[in-house]
C-alpha cells in the first residue's frame, strides 16, 4: 500500500527524489510518508540533502586520501631513489662496476653507458673510487677496459693528471697500441717537457725502445736535454746510446756516453769509498776528542 502511494506521489515529487530507488527511500524513513501531508517533500528533501552532503564529504575524503597516498608514494620513491646510492658501501659500488665492466661486450657505447649510469647517483665525481676500479682492472690485465675507462674520465674533464696520463700510456702499450700512445704523448704531454716527471718520460722511452720506435726515443731525449733535464739513471742513457748505434748515429752515441759517464761509475765501489770516508772522519774527531781530554788531565795535575 505504501509503495503504491509513493508511485502516485512520484509524479510531482522533486527530480532528486525520482532518481532514488524504492529501497533507498525506505532507508530514508519513507515509512513515515503520508500522502497529502505537506511535510512529505520537506522530510524527503531534508534527508536527501543530508545524505548527499555526507556522500559529497565522503567522496572528497576519498579523493584527498588518494592524493595523499599518491604523494606519499612519490615521496617514498624519491627517498628510495635517493637512498640507492647512499645505502651501498663504496667497496660494493666498486666491485659492482668492475664486475659489470668485465661482463660487458667490447663496445665503447656499452662501456660509456655503464659508467654514466654508475655515476648518476653520485653528487661528486667519484675519482677515488674509479682509481680503485682501474687498479682492479689492471690486476685482471684488462688493458682495453682500462683505456676505455680513462678515456671516459678524460671526456668528462676528470683525471687530467700526469699519473692518469701515465696509466693510460702504459695501458695503451700493454694493449699493443704504441702508435696511439705516441700520439697521446705528443698531443697532451710532449709539448712542455720542463715539468714532466722523469718516471713518465722513462715509461715513454721504454715504449719507444720495445716497439722499435728509435727515432722517437732519440728525439724525446734531445728535447729533454734542450730543457736542461739530466737523466737520473744510466739505463736511460744506455737505451738512447743503443738507439743511436742502431740508427748509425755513432758520434751522438759517443757524446752521450762521455757527457753522462758519471752515471756509469761503480755505485757499490762508490758507496764503499763514501763509507770509508765517513768512518775516517769519525775516527779523526774521536782522536781529537781523546787528545783534548788527556791535555786537560795533564794541566789539572800540574796545578
TrEMBL record:
InterPro entries referenced in this protein's UniProt entry, alphabetically: TPR-like_helical_dom_sf
Region spans: Disordered: 283-303
Q: Which domain of life is it from?
A: Eukaryota
**Could you tell me what this protein is called?**
Pentatricopeptide repeat-containing protein
Organism per entry: Citrullus colocynthis
Amino acid at each position: 500500500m505504501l509503495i503504491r502511494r509513493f508511485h502516485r506521489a512520484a509524479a510531482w515529487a522533486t527530480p532528486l527524489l525520482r532518481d532514488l530507488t524504492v529501497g533507498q527511500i525506505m532507508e530514508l524513513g519513507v515509512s513515515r510518508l503520508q500522502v497529502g501531508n505537506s511535510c512529505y517533500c520537506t522530510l524527503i528533501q531534508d534527508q536527501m540533502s543530508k545524505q548527499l552532503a555526507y556522500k559529497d564529504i565522503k567522496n572528497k575524503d576519498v579523493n584527498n586520501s588518494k592524493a595523499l597516498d599518491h604523494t606519499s608514494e612519490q615521496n617514498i620513491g624519491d627517498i628510495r631513489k635517493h637512498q640507492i646510492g647512499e645505502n651501498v658501501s663504496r667497496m660494493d659500488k666498486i666491485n659492482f662496476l668492475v664486475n659489470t665492466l668485465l661482463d660487458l661486450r667490447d663496445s665503447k657505447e656499452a662501456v660509456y653507458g655503464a659508467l654514466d649510469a654508475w655515476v648518476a647517483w653520485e653528487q661528486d665525481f667519484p675519482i677515488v673510487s674509479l682509481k680503485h676500479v682501474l687498479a682492479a682492472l689492471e690486476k685482471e690485465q684488462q688493458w682495453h677496459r682500462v683505456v676505455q675507462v680513462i678515456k671516459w674520465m678524460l671526456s668528462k674533464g676528470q683525471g687530467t693528471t700526469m699519473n692518469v696520463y701515465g696509466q693510460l700510456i702504459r695501458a695503451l702499450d700493454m694493449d699493443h697500441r704504441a702508435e696511439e700512445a705516441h700520439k697521446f704523448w705528443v698531443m697532451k704531454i710532449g709539448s712542455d717537457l720542463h715539468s714532466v716527471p722523469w718516471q713518465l718520460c722513462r715509461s715513454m722511452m721504454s715504449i719507444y725502445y720495445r716497439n722499435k720506435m728509435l727515432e722517437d726515443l732519440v728525439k724525446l731525449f734531445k728535447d729533454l736535454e734542450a730543457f736542461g733535464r739530466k737523466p737520473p739513471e744510466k739505463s736511460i742513457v744506455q737505451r738512447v746510446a743503443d738507439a743511436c748505434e742502431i740508427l748509425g748515429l755513432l758520434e751522438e752515441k759517443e757524446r752521450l756516453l762521455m757527457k753522462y759517464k758519471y752515471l756509469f761509475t761503480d755505485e757499490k765501489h762508490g758507496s764503499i769509498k763514501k763509507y770509508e770516508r765517513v768512518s775516517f772522519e769519525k775516527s779523526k774527531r774521536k782522536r781529537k776528542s781523546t787528545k783534548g781530554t788527556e791535555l786537560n788531565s795533564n794541566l789539572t795535575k800540574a796545578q
